[in-house]
Amino acid sequence: MSSTSSTISLRRSCQACAKVKRRCDRLIPKCSRCSTKGINCEYVNAPLAAGMTSKIQKQKPIRAITSIPPSLDMEILKTFEPSIVRFIVNGMRDFPNAFARDVKTSFIHPDLYDNLSLPGPIQDLHIICASYNANPSSQLLCRVLKQKSAEIRRQAARASTFEDLLVCIQALVLAQCILVFDRPENDDQYLESTTNMLTGLAWKLWQQAPIQLPHTLSPRRAWLLAESVRRTIIVAYILRSAYSFDKRNYSVRTPFIEALPFDVRTSLWDAPAENWEEAAVTSQSSMVSLREYSGMLESGRVHGISAFGNLILAACKGKTAATVQFPSRHPTLVS
User: Fold this and answer.
1) For tag attachment on the chain, is the N or C end more exposed, with fewer CB atoms within 10 Å?
2) CB 164 within 8 A of CB 197
3) How far apart are CA 217 and CA 333, in angstroms?
4) How open is the CA angle 224-89-272, to the nearest 5 degrees?
5) Is there a single domain that holds both residue 35 and residue 141?
6) What are the C-alpha distances in Å from 142 to residues 139, 181, 282, 299?
7) What InterPro entries does the annotation carry (predicted)?
């Protein structure tokens, strides 16, 4: 065998790397060095390089796997029917209205705080939500809301306690529920950044959530705190999804959210304080993942689906309670 033949059959480096005597990682269709420099990448033995079963094939999958983010951060595209998108958007828009009316939403419970003195950010948003109900098209309100959001963002950044962080994020969710769906034409860049900021804070909330709650809390207050954290995170991500649907006609599935624990006893959120402990004892206690819960809703295993459950069903499965079939042969849960 001549030296020329031997060189052609044995060389695995691309021509560009071989020419300057640099190590070549032999990736297909371009090695890393050629990709970085933006130059042509050609292999001397092109047929062998394209079909070899040696080190090239082993390296390429490894490189691809290491570039994938951790599984809980992955996002998977999804699209829904326009009617479902409208349902989700309307559900998010109703939060400020409900808060102005009842000082309560599906993720903010007044009994978690002192009813006589709500935390500052939430008290401020209650006043703004009431003004929004009275005059939803006010441009002045929009400017005030942006200023207040910036102030609350700064408070969230320097929050000294977990409870302070929760309060700030809840207030920011309410603010975004107004700004996202009543935005001026040129506000997309602002809303894109603030919506991403909000989901980043929701992730931070989950990371900082205490493993154990103080023994001084009553069972009801402890449950309301834990449930408020979970619901606030879920609503923050549904808000991002609704914004994406509204702007781009598609959204993403986020395994981190689908893996969140969820208490199927959603009726406890609205149970009267005097009857709460009895209701908690007699109701079925079950913590499942949000994905499991949305699957239970979709399969008809939950009767009496709450408004919040209906929003979860729409956001996770692209369906509403009105379309759910309730099989009689399977056990069902009362939501």
Assistant:
1) N
2) no
3) 28
4) 25
5) no
6) 5, 11, 46, 41
7) Zn2-C6_fun-type_DNA-bd_sf, Zn2Cys6_DnaBD
Domain count, the chain: 2
- 200 and 98 inside one domain: yes
Residue whose structure tokens are 């154990």: 212
Q: State the pLDDT at residue 108.
A: 96
Q: What are the structure tokens assigned to 87, written together?
A: 């349902």
Task: Among 37-46, 66-75, 108-117, 192-201, name the one with the lowest average pLDDT.
Answer: 66-75
CATH code for the domain in which residue 28 is found: 4.10.240.10
Instruction: Tell me: pLDDT of 335 over 60.
Output: yes
Are 94 and 34 in a shared domain? no
Highest mean pLDDT among 104-108, 206-210, 278-282: 104-108
Measured CA to CA, the distance from residue 55 to residue 27 in angstroms comes to: 9
The answer to which of 74-83, 102-111, 149-158 has the lowest mean pLDDT is 74-83
Q: Return the structure tokens found at 151.
A: 């102030």
Residue found under tokens 């009543």 = 182
User: Tokens representing 7?
Assistant: 């060189």
Per-residue pLDDT, averaged over 83-103, amounts to 94
Instruction: Let me know whether 130 and 266 are in one domain.
Output: yes
Give the least confident one: 32-41, 140-149, 159-168. 32-41
Q: Cβ(175)–Cβ(236) under 8 Å?
A: no
Range of the domain at 34: 12-42
Supply 186's token pair: 């040129």
Q: Taking 90 as the threshold, does the pLDDT of residue 166 lie above it?
A: yes
Does residue 64 fall inside a structural domain? Answer: no
Higher pLDDT, 237 or 180: 237
Do 255 and 166 share a structural domain? yes
Contact, 196 vs 240, CB < 8 A?
Answer: yes
pLDDT at 5 over 50: no
**Closest listed residue to residue 231, CA positions, set 293, 279, 181, 149:** 293
Domain assignment present for 138: yes
- 28 and 134: one domain? no
Q: DSSP of 294-311, one letter per residue?
A: HHHHHTT-EES--HHHHH
Are the C-beta atoms of residues 26 and 56 closer than 8 Å to each other? yes
